């Protein structure tokens, strides 16, 4: 009985740690995003200057719809992911009036088959991020303006790509957008006890961290950006 209670306590502690980690990630992300969206607005201005957000490997994230509800949505919000992901997300949006009604208008369309959602201020598009020429074309098709302030999101995305692809994306972004912030959230320290277990758990699910050894520390990740055009 004592062992059972101990196991339950261990599970609860693990769940609490995971919840704290998720909240910390969300809080840090939303704080930086708010700073970006609010920058450049003087106290006597009512209109927000045009800004855009590019989410790489967006998955099923709902940040755009949250910002819309809060009255903080940027001029343009573009989400990119593999077609199998964007098709499922397009279906979710199409089948949810709560989401669909927020984006549909005269210039809006949803295609589950193509994995696309197109509207004036929100775009969901399929692309393999490793294909830089195609990435360049998709971002252009989305109507992103390289001269506008841009917030680029990559949450647990680059770490799953091979190091050359990760570097190429970071380099492409620095050359494409004249004023940008790159929000990177991903794993570090694969050699400590926690990191070792993390690697085992992810690999058992077929989710190898292909770039973890190329940038295993915060310093290494900073170097990745500094060497590819970022300040």
From TrEMBL:
<dbReference type="InterPro" id="IPR007213">
    <property type="entry name" value="Ppm1/Ppm2/Tcmp"/>
</dbReference>
<comment type="similarity">
    <text>Belongs to the methyltransferase superfamily. LCMT family.</text>
</comment>
<dbReference type="Pfam" id="PF04072">
    <property type="entry name" value="LCM"/>
</dbReference>
<dbReference type="InterPro" id="IPR029063">
    <property type="entry name" value="SAM-dependent_MTases_sf"/>
</dbReference>
<dbReference type="InterPro" id="IPR016651">
    <property type="entry name" value="LCMT1"/>
</dbReference>
<keyword id="KW-0808">Transferase</keyword>
<protein>
    <recommendedName>
        <fullName>[phosphatase 2A protein]-leucine-carboxy methyltransferase</fullName>
        <ecNumber>2.1.1.233</ecNumber>
    </recommendedName>
</protein>
<keyword id="KW-0949">S-adenosyl-L-methionine</keyword>
<keyword id="KW-0489">Methyltransferase</keyword>
